[in-house]
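Incident review: delayed structure delivery

Summary: a single-chain prediction request sat in the queue longer than the usual turnaround. Root cause was a stuck worker, restarted by the on-call engineer. No data loss occurred. The affected request and its eventual output are reproduced below so the record is complete for anyone auditing the incident later.

Affected input:
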Amino acid sequence: MKKDNRKMFFAAIALVIATITITSFVLTTFGFVGFLPREEYKKYRKVVALGEEVEDSFYKKADDKKLEEGMCKGLFYGLDDEYSSYYNKEEMKQIMEVSSGKYVGIGLIVSADKETGAIKVERTIPGGPADLAGVKKGDLIIKVDNKAYSYQEMDIAVKNMRGEAGTDTKVTFLRDGKALEKKIKRKEIKLDSVSSKIIDGNIGYIQITSFDEDTDVDFKKALDSLEKKNIKGLILDVRNNGGGYLNVVKNISDRLLGQGVIVYTKDNKGNKDYLRSDDKEKVDIPIAILTNEYSASASEILTGAIVDNKAGISIGKTTYGKGLVQSVVQLKDGSGYKLTTAQYFTPNGDYINKKGIKANIEVKDEEKQLPKAVEYIKEKIK
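Output delivered after worker restart:
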């Protein structure tokens, strides 16, 4: 590629960066774009200048696709938002696999721990490879296959812990200041996001571990089964549930709230969008929802909806405090991004980001939370 054409290439890349959320890769969809408006050139001229310097001075020929990917990742990194990221094709595929509730990996749920700068294990999948290897909640992941990762590289670390079933990955954890190196064999992980049982003869219990694609369907089956057993009250457990799809929360809320506001969002232009439930299939029994400091996002939306609509109460500990909404978009070439696009508010107008939802009945001891919920329901159904 000649130098002049190379300059046009970097200018075109800058244009794509400037308009990526609406153009879906102008370069690959419509062909080469050589025109860059003056105001956009001024805004991104450093990117163009650095690109030219790389072309002129780097000791070997750079990979254009990797340069493009790096600039796209850098754009989202510059937002300083732990929830917004750009994903290449392979990373996006894995994001979609996890959302479906099935993937090949070692069975870890992780989060970004800004306090330590590391990736923290929130929980292990019971019976999964990590669980069987002795990995514990609170362990910090510092290396995957001898490469160090910070919380800002969490998506890449997670990607590298996945792979083909039957292959090994070596993960270094930090626990109580000591490094623990574990060789863990990957296998297909199926996340059963809903489980249910009867407690104390007539109280239904449903645990929701995540809000995946089919969680609402599984929830309906579980609730229908419990209703056939003539339950008089219902306990929902969203402790350690990091969230998921908003439409799934909506479908679950239809069974619990009756007509009412589930949540409303506000974008950067001040536009409000209300999500409402209907009462076609509403249960008419006392409800308690169990929460803790790891109940986040969609879990908090469901909790706020139940509490603010007076459909039930929350018991346990204050929730995580994630009051931001992300849009996940897959682009034409298979890559994609996750971008925080709005704030959300509970029906009463509470903004819970970095604050959480305080439980109506606070119970700090995790072992006593479920018994307290049973006690509350028994009082209500006397």
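Verification: Confidence is low (pLDDT under 50) at residues 15-34.
Action items: add queue-age alerting; document worker restart procedure.
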